């Protein structure tokens, strides 16, 4: 994973340095993709929590992310991006106990794009591939519940997926700033751990450097 991140950053730096008229940017925003946590809710039933309490565990996490993006202008433009996200939540199990839920995610993507630009708007459609990794971590201040979480293997629940995607992206271009809204349809090639859904959406702001 570390080698893949380093190669992605290096490729994007090259994009920013040699691609005339193209760009390399850094920024942040929100990323959302569904995580199938139905089995997790069933296992948490072993803690003695009632179903209404467990219903508070979301399957959609709006993850604040930091990201790098680059675009290389070839006969078919190529886009590369890296996003790293993290989120923490407190979830009620009963009237006296809370679970601390941590979510981490990293996404590396490469896409072939078709683009249309007019004035300060840009529209892109494309296909590409992703490597998505992340995990849920559960903890509690209650030593008894913390021990149960560890025994059930619920203190750390990772996922990893390799996908291909179709995407649509709308950009608002304001000088060095790019506000973008992106949606992806994901087709999983392989995955392990918790399963992710078939789509991903991102809203963010990039500064072109």
CATH architecture: Beta Barrel
- Averaged pLDDT, please? 81
Count of distinct structural domains: 1
Structural shape: elongated
Question: What is the CATH top level name?
Answer: Mainly Beta
Termini, distance in Å?
26 Å
Give the uncertain stretches in residue-range form. Answer: 9-21, 49-54
Beta-strand content bin: over 45%
Cα gyration radius (Å)? 19 Å
What fold name stands as the CATH topology? Porin
Determine the number of helices (DSSP H or I, runs of at least 4 residues).
4
How do the strands line up in the largest sheet? 1-2-3-4-5-6-7-8
Elements, N to C (H/E):
HEHHEEEEHEEE
- Strand tally, please? 8
* SS-based class: alpha+beta
Largest sheet: 8 strands, antiparallel, barrel
Helix content: 10-25%
What does this structure look like?
This protein is α+β, with helices and mostly antiparallel strands and 209 residues long. The protein has a single domain (2-208), classed as Beta Barrel (Porin). Helix content is 18%, strand content 57%. It has four helices and eight strands. It has helices spanning 2-18, 38-44, 51-54, 143-152, and strands spanning 23-32, 63-72, 78-92, 98-118, 121-139, 157-174, 177-193, 199-208. Strands 1-2-3-4-5-6-7-8 form an eight-stranded antiparallel beta barrel. A hairpin with a 5-residue loop joins strand 2 and strand 3. The protein is elongated and about 60 Å long. The two termini are 26 Å apart.
């Amino acid at each position: 994973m570390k080698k893949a991140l380093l190669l992605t950053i290096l490729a994007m730096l090259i994009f920013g340095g040699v691609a005339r008229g193209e760009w390399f940017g850094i920024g942040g925003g929100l990323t959302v993709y569904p995580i199938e946590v139905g089995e997790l809710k069933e296992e948490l039933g072993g803690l003695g929590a009632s179903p209404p309490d467990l219903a508070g565990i979301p399957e959609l996490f709006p993850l604040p992310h930091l990201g790098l993006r680059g675009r290389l202008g070839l006969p078919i433009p190529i886009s590369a991006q890296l996003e790293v996200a993290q989120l923490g939540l407190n979830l009620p199990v009963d009237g006296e106990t809370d679970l601390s839920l941590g979510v981490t995610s990293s996404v590396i993507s490469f896409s072939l794009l078709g683009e249309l630009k007019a004035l300060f708007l840009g529209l892109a459609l494309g296909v590409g591939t992703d490597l998505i990794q992340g995990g849920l971590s559960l903890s509690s201040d209650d030593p008894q519940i913390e021990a149960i979480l560890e025994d059930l293997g619920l203190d750390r629940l990772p996922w990893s997926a390799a996908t291909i995607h179709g995407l649509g992206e709308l950009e608002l271009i304001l000088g060095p700033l790019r506000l973008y809204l992106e949606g992806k349809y994901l087709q999983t090639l392989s995955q392990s751990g918790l399963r992710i859904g078939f789509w991903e959406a991102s809203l963010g702001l990039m500064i072109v450097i």
